[in-house]
Design goal:
Blueprint: E1 3-7, H1 29-33, H2 39-42, E2 43-45, E3 51-54, H3 62-74, H4 77-88, E4 91-95, H5 102-109, E5 113-119, H6 122-125, H7 128-141, E6 146-155, H8 160-172, E7 178-184, H9 187-195, H10 199-202, H11 207-223
Parallel strand pairs: 1-3, 1-4, 5-6, 6-7
Antiparallel strand pairs: 2-3
Amino acid sequence: MKTLLIDVDPQGSVRYGSGLARGHETAGFADYLNGERTLREIILPTALPWLRVILAGSVADSADHVVYSQLVRETNVLQDLLQMAEQRCQVVVVDTPPGLGSITRKVLGGAEHVIVPLQCEPLALQTTPQILRMIQDIVAVNERLTLDGILLTMYELNNPASDRVVDYVRKYLPANIVFDVVVPRTVATADAFAAGQPVVVRSPADAASQAYVNLATILADRLV
């Protein structure tokens, strides 16, 4: 499937794991948002022939973050970009900041599907109810939005804290909103991130890679 991955998280982590060429363009969505770059300039090829990426771009300090969030919130640039991308790609994935901020809300207001990654750490459980309530509120306005599921990530085998999180989620959340797939924390994932490559390309036999492939298969079946 022809796919576009858009990073609107100012932390800009997408650039580390998407297989970009060395010396790639660093401008991205923030530069397009403020009118400094064209759309053509910020869409980058990757090691995967079907995947293109738009990086977060230039959001260097706290002052930039304030202006960036304001522009996302008060303009229609993001919605217009998503509409254009929908016409040209089969799948458009948007990586948002963690939490309940205005950028995430803006993205969900124009999205059709949402996946909520949940780290298998006790602290992550504290924000999950608020995130689910926010999604319910947005669905009241954006009826197209579907919660595809909560994805348990960074699971550590033989770590009691990780096991408690998984047990809690399986016990107290409806089974139909939690993916059966659990993504483990692995050395191969960290190595791939450091090398700037997708773990499914660098280490396809790794347990995390297999989990991501299983997740992609589930999602592809739903989208077709």
